[in-house]
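Ops channel
N.P.: pipeline sanity check, posting one input/output pair.
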């Protein structure tokens, strides 16, 4: 999908303007029908008041005579009412068309906006999410889009309606009484000026209100996601107070917005009623002077009322347009975010899995500390290689660079002797199966989560992947087995089960490169041994990269890379590194002593 942000509300209607034109034209026909009723009513009033059919409309008089055989007051009034009813019904049909055209146009536009936003959020650079607030993004994709939909569904048509009403009414008023025609517009400039001032004020206040609502939504989303942590630390009171502060800020800002609207409605009502009062008072004087009939005054009064309220209503239209402008600006902030470059033609076939890092250096941003410093390493296709080191040494960052989640500053990274910066990102990531320490699971069934790795995989392959990940027995114990729901983020599973299910998903993908980023940290040692044995049986089928803090996970690797402060400080197999003085030997000794102590404590507990 092409990402083309819209600079203003006119551009956003591109592709739907014919529908809006149809809606405006339908509204025009409706307005003509609506105005016909006061005309007919005015003639009827004059016929009754003056007791003279000469004051009636000739066509209505002739048609009434032809229908009833003779002209009577009752016949004329009944026929006039019937004609007014039919014209109103005809106008109602066009009013329906107006609503249909406007609804189709607005829904299509907002649907496109939502899809553009959702798609863009999948294409922005990974660094965007380092500072983005999930609750705020949800607000932009839902509330801000809805604000624009409300404006597009009704307010654009209201603008056209007000203009067309003025264009329709003025000729009629001028034919009835030129003096009242101009007098009926004397206060409308003040309404228009007031609406403009209101628009300039409300736009700023709405932006503040919208941002405070986004902050409140973000707080709510964050707390619901981490509700178990909140309860575990007994922080309910603190978090409720924090949410209360955000809620109060939103309330206060929204109150300011409502207060502004109250000032506008009160002032505009005063002007609107004053305008009607002026016409009524002057019209009564003209009737007393004999220069205006009661029926003409009725028609003029009704017509002026039909125009003045839509003009006064422009304040609400401008309010919604101000909100829509703010919302469109917030949406454009996402749509204008830099996206990942996407090479058009991906490489053909399946990667072999050979990886080469050459003098690679990387930092997460300008001025930030270097995370990877002059890394040079060749990983053969089918090799099992492990990375160990203290937290912050750059182990996980190396994988992010390999997946092109972040651009590196210097050096090269190659896959099968091809620079990854020239490889299509989607194809590149399809060649890598990744299992993270804190894996993400969808709120779907076990089968649906596995299908993410390889949609449509044969059942025997699913079973084999689950057995290799030591999760098959657990799945069989679920009441609905593979159809069991795992809950949001896999909440119904234990930490070990989540990791093993994510591992099964990655194994099912059968990518040429498998990355295990501390993905066995939550499983017990027996289960870990079973998984490692299964992975050993698969050795050679894919390049396997293991990142771990627990050395039992890396002992059988072909090579072990020890990282410290972003540099390779040791490289070799387990036997060589364990016998060489250095960080690995010290870490192995510490973990060995710790494991021995734990086993001794367990033995003592069992004897007692």
């Amino acid at each position: 999908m092409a990402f083309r942000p819209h600079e203003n509300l006119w551009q956003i209607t591109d592709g739907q303007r014919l529908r809006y034109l149809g809606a405006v034209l339908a509204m025009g026909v409706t307005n003509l029908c609506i105005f016909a009723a006061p005309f007919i009513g005015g003639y009827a009033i004059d016929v009754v008041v003056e007791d003279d059919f000469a004051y009636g409309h000739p066509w209505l008089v002739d048609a009434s005579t032809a229908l009833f055989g003779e002209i009577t007051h009752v016949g004329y009034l009944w026929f006039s009412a019937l004609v007014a009813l039919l014209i109103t019904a005809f106008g109602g049909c066009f009013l329906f068309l107006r609503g249909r055209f406007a609804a189709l146009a607005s829904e299509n536009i907002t649907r496109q906006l939502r899809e553009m936003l959702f798609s863009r959020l999948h294409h922005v650079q990974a660094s965007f999410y380092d500072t983005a607030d999930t609750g705020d993004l949800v607000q932009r994709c839902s509330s801000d889009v809805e604000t624009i939909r409300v404006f597009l569904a009704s307010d654009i048509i209201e603008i056209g309606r007000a203009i067309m009403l003025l264009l329709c009414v003025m000729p009629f008023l001028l034919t009835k009484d030129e003096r009242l025609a101009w007098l009926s517009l004397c206060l409308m400039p003040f309404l228009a000026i007031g609406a403009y001032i209101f628009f300039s004020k409300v736009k700023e206040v709405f932006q503040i209100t919208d941002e405070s609502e986004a902050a409140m939504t973000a707080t709510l989303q964050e707390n619901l996601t981490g509700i178990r942590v909140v309860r575990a630390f007994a922080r309910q009171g603190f978090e409720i107070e924090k949410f209360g502060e955000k809620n109060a800020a939103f309330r206060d800002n929204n109150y300011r917005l409502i207060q502004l609207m109250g000032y506008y409605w009160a002032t505009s009502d005063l002007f609107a009623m004053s305008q009607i009062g002026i016409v009524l008072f002057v019209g009564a004087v003209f009737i007393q002077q004999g220069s205006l009939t009661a029926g003409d005054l009725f028609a003029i009064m009704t017509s002026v009322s039909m125009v003045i309220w839509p003009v006064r209503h422009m304040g609400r239209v401008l309010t919604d347009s101000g909100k829509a402008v703010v919302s469109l600006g917030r949406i454009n902030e996402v749509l204008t975010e830099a996206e990942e470059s996407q090479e058009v033609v991906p490489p053909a076939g399946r990667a072999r899995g050979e990886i080469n890092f050459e003098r690679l250096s990387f930092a997460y941003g300008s001025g930030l500390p270097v995370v990877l410093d002059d890394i040079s390493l060749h990983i053969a296709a089918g090799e099992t290689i492990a990375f160990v080191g203290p937290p912050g040494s750059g182990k996980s960052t190396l994988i992010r660079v390999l997946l092109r989640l972040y651009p590196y500053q210097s050096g090269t990274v190659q896959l099968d002797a091809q620079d990854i910066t020239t490889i299509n990102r989607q194809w590149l990531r399809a060649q890598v199966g990744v299992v993270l320490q804190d894996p993400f699971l969808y709120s779907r069934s076990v089968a649906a989560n596995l299908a993410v790795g390889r949609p449509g995989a044969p059942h025997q392959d699913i079973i084999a992947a689950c057995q290799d990940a030591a999760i098959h027995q657990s799945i069989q114990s679920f009441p609905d087995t593979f159809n069991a729901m795992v809950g949001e983020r896999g909440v119904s599973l234990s930490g070990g089960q989540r990791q093993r299910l994510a591992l099964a998903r990655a194994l099912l993908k059968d990518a040429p490169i498998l990355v295990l980023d501390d993905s066995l940290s939550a499983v017990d040692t027996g289960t870990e041994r079973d998984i490692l044995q299964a992975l050993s049986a698969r050795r050679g089928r894919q390049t396997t990269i293991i990142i771990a803090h627990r050395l039992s996970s890396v002992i059988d690797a072909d090579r072990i890379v020890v990282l410290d402060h972003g540099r390779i400080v040791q490289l070799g197999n387990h036997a060589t590194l364990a016998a060489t003085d250095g960080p690995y030997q010290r870490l192995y000794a510490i973990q060995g002593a710790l494991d021995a102590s734990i086993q001794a404590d367990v033995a003592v507990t069992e004897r007692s």
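N.P.: looks fine end to end. The chain has a mean pLDDT of 81.
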